[in-house]
Amino acid sequence: xxxxxxxxxxxxxxxxxxxxxxxxxxxxxxxxxxxxxxxxxxxxxxxxxxxxxxxxxxxxxxxxxxxxxxxxxxxxxxxxxxxxxxxxxxxxxxxxxxxxxxxxxxxxxxxxxxxxxxxxxxxxxxxxxxxxxxxxxxxxxxxxxxxxxxxxxxxxxxxxxxxxxxxxxxxxxxxxxxxxxxxxxxxxxxxxxxxxxxxxxxxxxxxxxxxxx
Length: 213
Hints:
By secondary structure, the chain is of the alpha+beta class. It folds into two domains: 12-83, Arc Repressor Mutant, subunit A (Orthogonal Bundle); 86-209, Umud Fragment, subunit A, CATH 2.10.109.10. The protein has four helices and eleven strands. The strands form two sheets. Strands 4-3-5-6-11-7-8-9-10 form a nine-stranded mixed β-sheet, with no helix packed on it. A two-stranded antiparallel sheet has the order 1-2.
């Protein structure tokens, strides 16, 4: 994997680390642990390795999955360069991930990484309330990026207008008898069953952002 220093500035050690990770993945089919990076690069301090990885993550060159020993995923240079680009999308309000509530219109705009927004598609942001989608890692207070469209495939997470009155975020499943099942991703909650003519898909969730402040 080749990185242009004019596109993404890298220190010599960062370049070596990216090359090592790339070669390791090509040879083994999975990413190295911190210990394997240390052994392969002659680095004895795991804290130093962790610092280098954080810097690469900040530059958008890698992603890491929480709570995985082999968590490193390389991001190609063109995608990494786009990481610093943002698009402002309208925050259209709040939507329930529990029982349906009305969406509330706001004037706020949210800056979203350009890589998360499909080109040429009408897209907006909603803030989730409730925890019925928690098993899909959509938590109370999260911001979901929504592609505005009126159709969905079975199993997609949708923003649905129910009975012309309230809006909810659920997984979408057509059922027999002209019914639609709006399925929560929470084992403690029951699905919403409603006639197909009483449900209107308003959009499909294509991304998720979380605020920590």
